[in-house]
What we know:
The structure is a single chain. This protein has 12 helices and 16 strands. By secondary structure, it is of the alpha/beta class. It has 2 domains: 2-246, P-loop containing nucleotide triphosphate hydrolases (Rossmann fold, 3-Layer(aba) Sandwich), CATH 3.40.50; 252-362, CBS-domain, CATH 3.10.580. The strands form 4 sheets. Strands 6-7-8-3-9-10 form a 6-stranded mixed beta sheet. A 4-stranded antiparallel beta sheet has the order 2-1-4-5. Strands 11-12-13 form a 3-stranded mixed beta sheet, with no helix packed on it. Helix 3 (93-103) crosses helix 4. The model has no long low-confidence stretch (mean pLDDT 89). The structure holds adenosine-5'-triphosphate. Adenosine-5'-triphosphate binds at residues 11, 13, 15, 17, 35, 37-43, 194.
Amino acid sequence: MITFDGVTKRYADGTVAVDRLSLEAPTGEITVFVGPSGCGKTTSLRMINRMIDPSEGRVLLDGVDVTTIDPPALRRGIGYVIQQAGLFPHRKIVDNVATVPHLLGWNRKKARDRAMELLERVGLDLGLAERYPFQLSGGQQQRVGVARALAADPPVLLMDEPFSAVDPVVRTSLQEELLRLQAELNKTIVFVTHDIDEAVKLGDRVAVLRVGGHLAQLDDPATLLSRPADDFVREFLGRDRGIRRLSFVPGQEVRLRTDLTAPASAEVAGLRAAAGPWLAVLDEDGRPLGWVKVADLPASGTLADVRPAPYGTFVRGRDSLRAALDATLLSPSGCAIAVDDAGRAEGVVTREALNEALDRVAGGAHA
Length: 367
Ligand SMILES: Nc1ncnc2c1ncn2[C@@H]1O[C@H](COP(=O)(O)OP(=O)(O)OP(=O)(O)O)[C@@H](O)[C@H]1O
């Protein structure tokens, strides 16, 4: 566990970058520092590995004041990833990653084997291992940066805006890779970002800082989004806070209707009095084929004769209500079809059901 105990950092020119910061980053969790430019995120992070020492207060690593530990010894247990990956330009990718194990006294073969294993783990094509950093894309370089930080298997990982210089698609895949890795590795991670979406996606806990280095709020993402501590945090979370909150409500929370589906074999004559203006048509295995509008049905025949409109689905056992809402927006009916892992329809989610689920889960979704 990393503990900030009343930490203040005053630079030589008098700037107070961090002001009496007290918080804990629990072992095995991702703690995110988020806030506007200049709020002291980087300064706080660097006080953990002693690139900067506090002016007042203490930073403790598992109860030990880090200023009592020699920086090189301290940093052996702390991986560090920065924005532009910071790779050694004249070393091949594999050697970039093997450097730390090599410094720790591993022989060359063992260090390289470890490097290759890590490169694979972070999802890098191993064909790139013999290249130099400039021959890699920004996203690939970031993967190497993460592999290098993990090389000595440190219990703590500090990440300073590691994904902010890559495009949004690559950033999403790097974030997912990090979450996948963390599920296996359980490192104590402190992650700095100015992107609130990234913060709530990655953080087990999110610390929102305001300029002057004050901690405005520290909470898990769902609580942060539903109960911002003050106007600054509310403003920082942005207008689409409601949409983001949906990501933290499991799909199982939503009520399903089974009276709005019909098999393709159904006779249209029997469907005139359907429960809703639209019906989800299912094949013989129960998989959705699309939507039909009851008012537009022909006079006779079965639903198999009607061309269904495209549909939106979400996997109820796995997805959040955000996916469910997205699916409703993509459906002509304004409803989503909930499916199981095998793609079979479990029922239909209406907008009313979405609202109900939100109200129930968050104690007032429209607050
Ligand atoms: N060496 C320094 N000397 C004086 N002031 C500094 C120094 N380093 C940082 N600062 C100031 O301390 C404050 C906090 O800086 P810091 O880099 O920690 O913020 P940050 O939240 O990481 O910002 P960003 O998101 O822009 O990187 C800023 O006002 C910055 O100008």
